[in-house]
Amino acid sequence: MANYSDSLVTNQRRLPKKRKTKPTRRKQASGRATQCLANFLLVARNDALLLECEMSKFPLQEVNQEEDGRRLEAAAPPHREEGEEEAPPVVRDDEEEEKARCEWDFSLSSSILPPSTSLCGTSDAIGVIEIDPSDTILATGGSARKIRIYTLRPLESRGFHDHASTYDYYICTPAKLSSLRWQPDSGGRVIGSGDYDGVVTEYDLEKRVPVFERDEHGGRRVWSIDYSARFPSVGASASDDGTVHLWDSRSGAGVAVIQPGSMSPVCSVEFDRSGGGTLMAVGSTDRCVYVFDLRWPAREPFAVLRSHRKAVSYVRFLGPGSVVSAGIDGCLKLWDVHAAKAVRTYEGHVNARNFVGLAVWREGGLLGCGSESNEVYVYDRRWKDPIWVRGFEPRPLLGQSGCGSRFVSSVCWRQHTSGECTLVAGGSNGVLQVFTGKKKETWFA
Questions:
Q1: Which of 18, 117, 139, 149 is the most buried (most CB within 10 A)?
Q2: CA dist., res. 414 & res. 437, Å (int)
Q3: How many CB atoms are located within 10 Å of the residue 240 CB?
Q4: Dihedral sign computed on CA atoms, order 205, 109, 125, 15
Q5: Average pLDDT of the segment spanning 40-47
Q6: Against a cut of 0.85, is the pTM above it?
Q7: Which distant-in-sequence residues (6+ apart) come within 8 Å of 411 by Cβ?
Q8: In angstroms, what CA-CA distances link 298 with 4, 230, 290, 308?
Q9: How far apart are the first and last CA of the chain?
Q10: β-strand 331-336 against 322-327: which pairing, if any?
């Protein structure tokens, strides 16, 4: 495979290929006390033991080899002769003929524009958007090497704005960012990031300084990070090096290293958001979704989900035992984890090359994603066709050069709403748009 080259379509987030390992970034020593090796190992070991004790509160189930064999057999792809097409996903008979309908009125609330020099380029590409658990603060990251922090409510007012007059503040980062995640128990104060240098960093937003750093992926890009809802200090990072690292940010101690599949680059990781959930989903370039149980992360996957024809770029939990995945085969898939099968396939958007984002609104059952056609797509979990599509604005002017490759690169839902919803989307040219939706009072078939 070819090596990575940022000179090819500068700063766009592309799906990973194998590349030469580059030197890791030297950790900053400023503000950190130096500890002797013996004391560090002792603290790390004690914290790891404490974490193991906490996880042991979950009742371990006796392993049934026969049952495990049936589950793995169900997860394996059915045998197909050469040239034979893959069987379509299972759809209930009563839903087979039902057409998708939009029960929401969506509208553009605001557009936040980058400097005019970025409108047809990618130097300010937005790679990730995250809304904090209180649904009041918005954070973005990407090629600009900045974490921009916004207050969400003013963005829901109509109008066109620019980033400089809209964000509350920003924090400069040493490398381009591929992932952001709010630490669950920090009250919106701490946000974690994964970057192109393979480093996981946590920032204290009140002090606006880094407070934790972990560099264990050998300089290979960290594509995704997440935190456990059950154990808020436990994080996971998925990397180009084909591994997922679990770690405890209280001490920096490693908890486990998972190598799903055949060491192919890992693009996405997410913990189950449901109360007491112990599952973790991983999306890989080997076209599979792997689901692990945190009670025994070093064991074989709880389930292996096979149906995508190309690399899996995102995984998201929609509910207990329900996972949505996105691939560069141009489709989303809804999975029943316990049955290890695809329940529905969503198609309509264009995705054959880039990261275009995937977000789920769990309460409303809506899925959002970007498209290489520079449009935002919304699907209802009940139907395979999109219920709403909107092109990004401002549209390219006739004769503008460099605008043909623009695409929607990231999306995020506000979670805790009822009867209304908010979807935020970012573009490869740095444009940030906020869409609001209201439930229709009546709908006539």
A1: 139
A2: 11
A3: 26
A4: positive
A5: 42
A6: no
A7: 129, 357, 358, 359, 368, 369, 370, 376, 423, 424, 425, 426
A8: 31, 18, 13, 25
A9: 51
A10: antiparallel
